[in-house]
From TrEMBL:
Entry annotated with the keyword Cytoplasm: no
Keyword entries, A-Z: Membrane, Transmembrane, Transmembrane helix
Gene Ontology, cellular component aspect: plasma membrane
Protein name per Swiss-Prot or TrEMBL: Prepilin type IV endopeptidase peptidase domain-containing protein
GO BP terms, alphabetized: signal peptide processing
PANTHER family given in the database record: PREPILIN LEADER PEPTIDASE_N-METHYLTRANSFERASE-RELATED, TYPE 4 PREPILIN-LIKE PROTEINS LEADER PEPTIDE-PROCESSING ENZYME
Xref: InterPro entries: Prepilin_IV_endopep_pep, Prepilin_peptidase/N-MTase
Length: 214
């Protein structure tokens, strides 16, 4: 088990990263202000995610890669929840960051299986969401781009991680929809942001160790 010598400083780094990313979140929000309370909560959440990832993964390139994913998923979820959009300026560069991290790990470990599975998962999930978007019109381009990124993220671990993360994402989204409908918060045809639930399903899969079987 990783020592507190890693976990505590990594949590502090996460809180600092979350605070800095708060400036990005504020600039990305067009209609709704980013309050000081929301800023503090997002920084705290990022710090907690960093701590759990450090405990779960230990020191290594995987920790760097997944901490980056956690850091960007928080502001993306906030923006999508508030304005139902996932800015490409955050999503698209993340493909490059993860690709470099996973590629470096593959070279250092002389093992390209994870990298190839990750790339295949990215394509599979992006095409699946694109097909769903074209067939139903219920998904936006941002959802499709985020799906590819999360396919890259989950596929690095295993095929079961890809399926588990996707299943949990839709389970969380469906549960939230039922709760919001039953409490009168949304109507039947009201759109609902999917990004936060995609992020939640992915992070739960990683931090709870539901992604270890290949």
């Amino acid at each position: 088990m990783p020592s507190p010598v890693l976990i505590i400083p990594w949590m502090a780094l996460g809180m600092l990263s979350g605070s800095v990313l708060g400036f990005m979140t504020r600039s990305l929000l067009r209609a709704k202000p980013f309050s000081r309370l929301s800023w503090t909560m997002s920084a705290t959440l990022t710090g907690l995610l960093f701590a759990v990832l450090a405990w779960r993964l230990g020191c290594g390139l995987a920790l760097l890669a997944y901490s980056y994913v956690a850091a960007v998923l928080v502001p993306l979820s906030i923006v999508d929840w508030a304005e139902q959009r996932l800015p490409s300026m955050v999503v698209l560069p993340s493909y490059l960051v993860l690709g470099v991290a996973f590629g470096a790990d593959a070279v250092l470990e002389y093992d390209y299986v994870n990298l190839l599975r990750s790339a295949a998962s990215m394509v599979i999930l992006a095409l699946a969401y694109l097909s769903l978007a074209l067939a139903t019109g219920g998904l936006g381009a941002g959802d499709v781009k985020l799906a590819g990124l999360l396919g890259l993220t989950l596929g690095w671990w295993s095929w079961s991680a890809l399926f588990t993360g996707t299943f949990l994402s839709w389970l969380f989204a469906a549960t939230a929809r039922v709760v919001l409908r039953s409490t009168g918060r949304v109507e039947r045809d009201d759109p609902m942001p999917l990004g936060p639930y995609l992020a939640l399903g992915t992070m739960v899969t990683v931090v709870l160790g539901l992604s270890t079987s290949s």
